[in-house]
Each structure stands twice: as C-alpha cells, then as structure tokens.
User: Fold this.
Amino acid sequence: MSTSPLTDLGLPGLRSGTELVPAHDAAADGPQTGKDFTSDQEVRWCPGCGDYAVLKAVQSFLPDLGLRRENIVFVSGIGCSSRFPYYLDTYGMHSIHGRAPSIATGIATAREDLSVWVVTGDGDALSIGGNHLIHALRRNVNMTILLFNNRIYGLTKGQYSPTSETGKVTKSTPMGSLDHPFNPVSLALGAEASFVARTIDSDRKHLTQVLAAAAAHRGTSLVEIYQNCPIFNDGAFDAIKSPDTKADAIIPLVHGEPVTFGAPSEDGRGSRALVRDQATGGVTVVATAEVDAADIVVHDAHNPDPTMAFAISRLTDAGYLNTSPIGIFRQVERPTYDDQAREQVALSIPENDDTADRAARLAALIGGGDTWTII
Assistant:
C-alpha cells in the first residue's frame, strides 16, 4: 500500500501525540466497497437469520470510515453473532464467552491507532459477560459495542436468555421462565454509558445512521440491535416490524424533536406523545391532541443527566414487544479510560528516559527497602 493521508478519527497517536489513524488512499489504492471488507469464509447462520442483514449493513458501512482494513478490529465472544469476525476482512478475534469487552479494552488502550468494535449477543453480554459489559461502559473505553438481541440462546439451541420475557417456555424452562428480563438500554444508561442507541436489523437506513454516529463517538458506544432468530424465537419483534403495527409500536427518538408516534395527525405529528409524569417523575404516553405542544417531551440526547433517557427507555415492554423506543438515547462527551491511562503512563516515564535507567528503577522497585529470607 502507498503512503496515505491521515484521517482524524479522534485517535491522537500512541506515542508522538501527532500521529493519526492512516486513511485509505482511494486515489492510490482504489476506492473501497463492501467487498473489500468481505472475507472468503462461508457465512454459516440459519436461513432468514437477522445476523445476515446486520453483517451486510456493517460491510457496506465500513468503507465510509475511510480507514484501512488493517486499522479496524472486531472482537467477539461466544454465540451465533460472535461468528461476525470470520466474515469481515479486517483484523478480528473470536474470543471467550462474555470477555470480548475486556479484550477490546486492552486493544483500545494499547493501540489507539485502531478502530475497535465488539460484537456480542444478549446471552454473551448480559449473562456471563454482564460485569465485563457494565465496567467497559462506566470506564468509557473508546470502542463500539454491537449487542445483537434476539431474546433467546440460539447457538445452544433455544434456552431462555437474560432478555427473554417472563413466562417464556423453552427447553430449559418448560413451565415458563421465572426471571425478569434485562432491558439492555436501561442497563447501559444505569452504568452511565456515554453513547446508547437501539436499532432494528431490518431497517437498513436507520441501522446505518446509528452505526455512523456510534463510530464517530469518542468513548464506549453501546448499540442494541433487535435481531430476529427464525429458528428458536421467530416473530419476537413482529409488532415493531409489521407495516400494520410498527407506527404504533415504534417510539422514534430524534435529538431536538418532540417525541410523538402513531398514525400521523393533520399537523404531521404522531397521534400519541410523551409528556412528563408529575406523579412519578418519569414519562407517560398521552393522546397528542389532548396536550399542548409545549408539554410534549423534546428528546435531548446530549443531556449530561441520563434521567430522562432512562425514563424513556422504560417504555420498552418487558413482555411481548408492543412498544419500544428506537434511536439514540444518549450521546454525551466525557473523558475516556484509554486516553487517561496513556496520560498516566506518559507522566510516569521521565523525559529522555533510556532502557538502562528503566531497568535499574524496576530492579530497585522489585527489591524494595525491606527483604526477608524465608527458610
């Protein structure tokens, strides 16, 4: 490859502080397309799986980053969605169950010249990987996490997952599950993630818009993707996908816009709206025609206080999804863990430090002032 100009992806460079992520030079190397990010591996998901749509959207979107493939890495855990790195012609790692955020944290901290992505599922991220996920979110490591939520365990053939509705009858819960499900967006907002969004596998335009915003965000971006499993949980999202019901089921979130949904009225607004609930401090759904326009909640994704975003996230049905907010819930800036870690390392190393001095200081540190001989 030829020497390329540099793209500022918010990654200032590992050592010099002036190096940026190498851009793809379209003039010298040819334009990039989705095929450049498609590996030679056979895609092995079940026919009709929503993962195909997400994979195609990501492959088509990656050229828009303007980065070389060598500067993009995808890390996954275990599960159907975690086969993702095999199908992308970038660097990647199919790691261990639930630990992808931890591995990605190390990569992002050691290599700030990389665009780091995590692909995980509702079981991988929210069961065995739950602690790893929330700590990555609170630390605000510079990575993008795609959480595929099909509300079931697919790879192990149909057990209930941490997002399955209460009463779900599966092979592992023949009388119905007793667990109350996680709401991944609420969980992320509770961990004070700096970027939280939700989208749908079948809405290519919206999915791509959310991917672009998540990739541009400096810090941890959590994108929940509703994804249909046609074998073990088919139709879990029919209410928000069907042309007959989605207008009443999807609560679209657009920064700076009043939150309305449902069949549009004469003024173009949805027939229902969100207003503040004075009794609970949250939000409630009312008929748009029955309230003043000034009383309708205006979505503010940039509000540093996540309280309103959390309240909106609670409108997601815990059972069968008859309603669900879709869009970017929160997008705020705060210091990232990896930036601060590199600053600490830089401060701990004196200027003009050489290897010999460093080795001597390390030996003195290990030796310490007091030693004991154990017999």
Remarks:
- DSSP finds twelve helices and 13 strands in the chain.
- The longest strand covers residues 324-331.
- Residues 1-19 have pLDDT under 50 and may be disordered.
